């Protein structure tokens, strides 16, 4: 018997393939496993997670350095009325992770952590406030400027509130779910908190009306709204509060909601209104002319047996204008000369009295009071017509709109307002415009009290 010289190689057994599983189900299980690892359900895991988040949210020296820089740049942006510089100031704002730490301190009920994060946020807000205050003082020593941005950020606007809600949710979720620094949502929170607090300081420093304390109310409203949304987001992310944290969270939510009710009671702002800053206020002068009395001479016919000379009734007219600060008083006395011719009547008991041939005609010639002008605002494409100087909004007049100007004006906080009338949809609407947004079709009117008007009297033939 002979054997083959080739080696015998054993045959590998055919491997048994595992059953094919659904890829989507596997991905779903992995996501749930990752979520359980990220948000542990046990008390020990929750404590470790909150401790790690607190270390990342603890305030540092950078918070105060960047807050001071941010406040100075924002104040300069308000001074120059530049959106670009305001954006630069927001980009220079510190990372708002201490705000998330403040919310975590409420959720955990840690008094020490709450005090540290709250004081860090308070000092940061004060530094931004001081930046606006110091720059606002400068405006007292420079020529008048038109400021609209500082007014905009001292009012409540629905778009800003919506963006603030989105930013608060995004910042809290990004901070908890990722180790990276959430720069973009931090910019949104800084925009909502630092711009109004800086505007409040700018308003006090410059002495502008309608800026302080409205801007500080906007800051408190934004802070309270962001606090409510941030705490609710932490609850949704399954960050469980402690027993003490439940008490702290309840008190904080009540405080935030009460703040919203109080400071949002005034409602939202009207459309954009420019504010003009001046270095020195001027007295307010209001001219209110008194209407002239009507001239109605009374004539009586008498029956005579023979012609008599004509009778000439005389009425004197004297107009005197006494300018005073606040009111111009006008007194008027009329003089009318007319000739009445009485025809002769026969001396009989039944003679009928004769009436004059015509009534005297009185003609008054007075200087024109309405001066034409054209709306020509340098920004916004138009100007706002208001019921009173800096008062209730009536309508927006586009550039090029023709208005008629009354010879009276008012100054409110150094800003000149003129009394105008405009025709809109076949209706005459009266109101007040900023003097700086109207260009005159004729030489600029003299708003001082005019001289005694000329009154001409023409008797009837």
> What percent of residues adopt helix (DSSP H or I)?
40-55%
Mean pLDDT: 73
Number of helical segments?
11
Strand order of the largest sheet: 10-9-8-5-11
Q: What is the N-to-C succession of helices and strands?
A: HHHHHHEHHHHHEEEEEEEEEE
For the biggest sheet, the summary is: 5 strands, antiparallel
Terminal CA distance: 166 Å
Shape: elongated
How many individual β-strands? 11
Measured by DSSP, the beta-strand proportion falls in 5-15%
Structural class: alpha+beta
Radius of gyration: 40 Å
Low-pLDDT stretches: 266-287, 294-312, 314-367, 449-461
SSE diagram, text form:
Blueprint: H1 23-38, H2 43-57, H3 61-80, H4 83-91, H5 97-108, H6 111-138, E1 145-147, H7 149-152, H8 158-177, H9 183-206, H10 214-236, H11 243-263, E2 275-277, E3 318-323, E4 328-333, E5 371-375, E6 382-386, E7 393-398, E8 402-412, E9 415-424, E10 427-434, E11 438-440
Antiparallel strand pairs: 1-2, 3-4, 5-8, 5-11, 6-7, 8-9, 9-10
């Amino acid at each position: 018997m002979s054997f083959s010289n080739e080696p015998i190689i054993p045959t590998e057994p055919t491997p048994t393939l595992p059953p094919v599983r659904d890829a989507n189900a596997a991905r779903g299980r992995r996501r749930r496993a990752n979520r359980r690892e990220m948000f542990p359900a046990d008390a020990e895991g929750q404590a470790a997670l909150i401790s790690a988040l607190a270390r990342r949210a603890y305030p540092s020296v950078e918070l105060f350095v960047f807050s001071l820089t941010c406040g100075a740049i924002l104040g300069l942006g308000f001074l120059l009325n530049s959106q670009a510089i305001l954006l630069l100031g927001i980009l220079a704002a510190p990372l708002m992770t201490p705000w998330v730490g403040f919310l975590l301190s409420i959720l955990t009920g840690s008094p020490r952590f709450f005090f540290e994060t709250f004081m860090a946020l308070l000092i940061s807000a004060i530094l931004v406030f001081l930046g606006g205050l110091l720059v606002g003082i400068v405006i007292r020593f420079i020529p008048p400027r038109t400021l609209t941005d500082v007014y905009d950020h001292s009012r409540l606007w629905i778009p800003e509130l919506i963006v603030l809600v989105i930013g608060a949710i995004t910042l809290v979720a990004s901070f908890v779910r990722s180790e990276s620094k959430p720069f973009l949502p931090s910019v949104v929170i800084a925009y909502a908190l630092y711009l109004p607090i800086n505007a409040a300081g700018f308003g006090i420093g410059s002495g502008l009306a309608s800026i302080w304390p409205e801007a500080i109310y906007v800051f408190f409203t934004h802070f309270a709204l962001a606090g409510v949304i941030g705490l609710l987001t932490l609850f949704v992310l399954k960050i469980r509060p402690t027993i003490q944290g439940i008490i702290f969270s309840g008190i904080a939510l009540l405080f935030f909601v009460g703040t919203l009710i109080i400071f949002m009671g005034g409602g939202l702002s009207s459309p954009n209104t420019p504010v003009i800053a001046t270095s020195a206020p001027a007295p307010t002068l209001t001219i209110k002319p008194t209407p002239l009395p009507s001239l109605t001479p009374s004539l009586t016919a008498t029956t005579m047996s023979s012609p008599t000379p004509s009778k000439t009734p005389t009425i004197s007219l004297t107009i005197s204008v006494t300018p005073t600060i606040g009111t111009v008083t006008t007194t008027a006395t009329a003089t009318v000369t007319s000739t009445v011719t009485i025809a002769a009547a026969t001396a009989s008991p039944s003679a009928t009295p004769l009436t004059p041939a015509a009534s005297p005609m009185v003609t008054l010639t007075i200087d024109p009071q309405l001066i034409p002008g054209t709306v020509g605002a340098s920004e916004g494409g138009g100007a706002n017509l208001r019921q009173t100087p800096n008062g209730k909004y009536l309508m927006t007049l586009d550039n090029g709109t023709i208005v008629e100007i009354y010879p009276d004006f008012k100054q409110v906080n150094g800003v000149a307002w003129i009394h105008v009338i405009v025709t809109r949809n076949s209706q005459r609407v009266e109101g007040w415009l900023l003097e700086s947004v109207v260009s005159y079709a004729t030489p600029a009117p003299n708003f001082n009290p005019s001289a005694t008007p000329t009154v001409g009297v023409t008797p009837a033939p």
